[in-house]
Amino acid sequence: MPKETLDSVIDSIEVESIGEGPPPPIPEPPFGPDDDDDGDFMDSQMNNAYVGMVLFIGAEVMLFAGLIGAFLLFRFGSAVWPPPFQPRLPVFVTGINTAILLLSGYTMHQALRAIQSRNYQQLANKLLITACLGLTFLVIQGYEWVRLIRFGLTPSSGVYGSTFYVLIGTHGTHVLGAVIWLLILLFRVRRRTNSPDRLYFMTRHYIGVKICGMYWYFVVALWPVLYTLVYLS
Amino acid sequence: MSESRAAKGTHEVHEAHAHLGFVRTYIFSTDHKMIGRQFLFMGLFMLIIGGLMAMLIRWELAFPEKPLPVIGASKEFIDTGEPKTSMDQTWAEWLSKPESEQNWLTKNMPMGAITAPLYNSLFTMHATLMIFFVVMPIMVGGFGNFLIPLTIGARDMAFPTLNMLSFWVGLLSGIIMLASLFVPGGSAAAGWTSYAPLTAKVEYTGVNWGQNLWCISLIVMGISSLMGSINYITTIINMRAPGMTFFRMPLITWSLFITAILLLLALPVLTSALAMLLFDRMLGTHFFLPEGGGEPILWQHLFWFFGHPEVYILVLPAMGVTSEVLSVFSRKPIFGYRGMVFAMTAIAFLSWVVWGHHMFVSGMNPLIGTTFMMTTMVIAVPSAIKTFNWLGTLWGGSIRFTTPMLFGLAFVSNFVIGGLSGIFMASTPVDIFIHDTYYIVAHFHYVVAGIIFAIFAAITYWFPKMFGRMMNETLGKIHAILTFIFFNATFFPMHILGVGGHMRRIFNPLQYEFLHPLQPVNVFISISAFCLGVAQLIFLFNFVWSLFAGKRADRNPWHANTLEWITPSPPPHGNFDKIPTVYRGPYEYSSPEVAEDWLPQDRRLETTTAKGAH
Question: DSSP letters of B157-181?
């Protein structure tokens, strides 16, 4: 297939929905004669999937806002934090872990650049590296949790442990979900890049990769906030 | 290119529909109209259950610890032990069995008399069902799904599969909630607010899995409404027909849009609180338990930070329905269209900064209490704007007293009473006196149970569009008038009980000497409530009968302007024959530009130069 046709197909996908539901209506509404020029605040159409993902991330922010609010109440409501006779959190190792997760945000950025330049081998590689970095983050977190539990910090050992495990655990669950999503995408990308039918992949999964990237940015961007609040403050 | 794509889409839609079997058309449907109807039926089923629970609560309050009529044992049997009626014999037989073989009735209402634990779970579940499984599924799930694509001129929602999933996850949550009634230990029984630390430890209420399932069900419901709200907002932003600007959307669509934003942002906060409560109960964390350094007030903050936007999630669509109905049946443009939109936006914004008014007696700093008092009173301004605009719409209109109009008028008048009693509650010095009395019960039933009038208005108004048949007007009017009378006879005297010091959630008012003189009021309320319940049978009959034998409806039986009325009744898969182009706002009634007194949004006028009046 000539590259020109391929590009025009891909460009048209960007303004269309991902196969779920009918395409959005034509932009430039023909205004009526008695139009009083309300104007829309959205002049250009955004893809349904992008809007949906932005809204979903908004809801996720509120979920974490509830949990962080609870943490802050305990953190600044108590005279001594962490409470006496509780183990200290591993600041240094988690700092390295923070760097790993931030790096995965950069590799995800590279993956999205690769999809822009239609370099599917590069895309597959970068997605794999991102997923591996995410998994490394989770493994190190899990290892630290096991050590903390051995030192006596459990969810039921007081409010210090309760907030730590629930807040950090909720983030970890989100990273796990995002990693699984990445691996599914990776599987699809590899299957399609190895077959001659690459157009199929592009039409079906182009936007899928982009919204997965948005979600990955969210879990990466959230982590430094949690690290600062829970480990450093 | 886009033209041909749109045309191809239509063709495919019709083709696909022809091949869909029964299961894909009626059960696992991705059509927004079918999902809307599914939500409506789920909500109406839950309304029956929640309503029967209310009847049991009222029986207990009027005739404390007396056996229920019909299924209860006779007085002679209880006094003497001699079975008189056939029900007596059944009770004697049931109660003679060993402990392990006792059925649900003998455990919860021996001899047909409601026990205190059952009473606690009844008022908890009545509120939970009515809020999360009646008003939200019917208004947001049912009419939100049905009306959003139709009123903005779209063929379906932005994410139809997600939409289907939203219903089935919602149904799962409803099933979990109903199942919790039958687990050992009974259902949740700490009030719908589930205040910690009462709920945070099994030992405090004796309810174990009932409370756990309550939390799980609401978390699942949160996922369902998250999917719904993402869908609604995306659809309204992205899928409006050509010419359908934001300020040409009907107010019902505006109200659902704002509601969806509130849902999206408020429910995750509840989810976080519910997760913490569940961890406290099941994993032994100490978020809300003081013995581990936890803070019970934290639950109240999180719950009401969600809870107050929730109140407007419930009432905003009702306001939208009322705006539609009043304008159509006054044959006048809505008074102050933009004022209505900005008032709803202001209400939605203010709903985030008033949650502390539920907590005036929780020992909060009086300075913070005063701040919450001020922000709460400010809500009266946009609410009054809406009320006066409704009155302005009615003023000088050629009013048609149809069934939906009667319900719309009833909603407005009850909303005024509920709004005014809210100002008493908002004022800290007054609230300290009437907090947790029947005054608050009267207040929130006037506003939240008053939504039932908007629900009936919506059902009777859009029934022709939803099911292609008209409802019976005579039965509808009788139902509307009886409901209005008995509703007020039920809830108005509760103000008097509340000022007299009658506590809410109390099992037997007669255990307090000072409440004895007020007991006749309780009996009067209960009798009115039973009449209110019986009056609903008229609606039930009318609904079911009209579904199968009502008069066939044409496209636009009410002569309304909005886009849903240009489609066939009921609209086919894909809704519109051709996506309409919108030329004006939704409320151009009695326009001098045309001979008839309505002017649909999609009708093109050739010779006009006049500016559209909004």
Answer: -S-HHHHHHHHHHHHHHHHHHHHGG
The three-state DSSP-derived secondary structure of B189-253 is CCCCCCCCCCCCCHHHHCCCHHHHHHHHHHHHHHHHHHHHHHHHHHHHHHCCCCCCCHHHCCHHH
Average pLDDT over residues A35-55: 64
- Residue B73 DSSP code: P
Question: DSSP for B38-68?
Answer: HHHHHHHHHHHHHHHHHHHHHHHHHSTTPPP
B242: amino acid identity, one letter: P
Any residues with CB less than 8 A from the CB of B204 and at least 6 apart, and which?
B197, B198
Contact, B43 vs B88, CB < 8 A?
Answer: no
Given CATH 3.10.129.10, say whether it is the number of domain B31-66+119-549.
no
Domain residue spans in chain B?
Answer: 31-66+119-549
Give the pLDDT score at A34.
Answer: 35
Over residues B260-284, the pLDDT tens digits come to: 999 999 999 999 999 999 999 999 8
Q: Residue A31 — very low, low, confident or very high, per pLDDT cuts 50/70/90?
A: very low
Q: Find chain A residues with C-beta within 8 A of B279's C-beta.
A: 155, 162, 166
Tens-place pLDDT, residues B309-326: 999 999 999 999 999 999
Interface test with B, best of A16, A60, A62 (most B CBs within 10 A): A62
**Which of A44, A61, A64, A159 would you mutate first to test chain B, the one with the most B CBs within 10 A?**
A159
Q: In CATH, which of 1.10.10.10, 3.30.720.120, 3.20.20.140, 1.20.120.80 is domain A53-232?
A: 1.20.120.80
pLDDT given at position A194: 62
What pLDDT sits at residue A196? 56
Q: How far, in Å, CA of B119 to CA of B113, rounded? A: 10
Contact B497, B518 (CB under 8 A): yes
Give the pLDDT confidence score for residue A229 in this predicted structure: 93
Q: Name the band, by pLDDT with cuts 50, 70 and 90, for residue B5.
A: very low
Hey, what amino acid is at B349? F
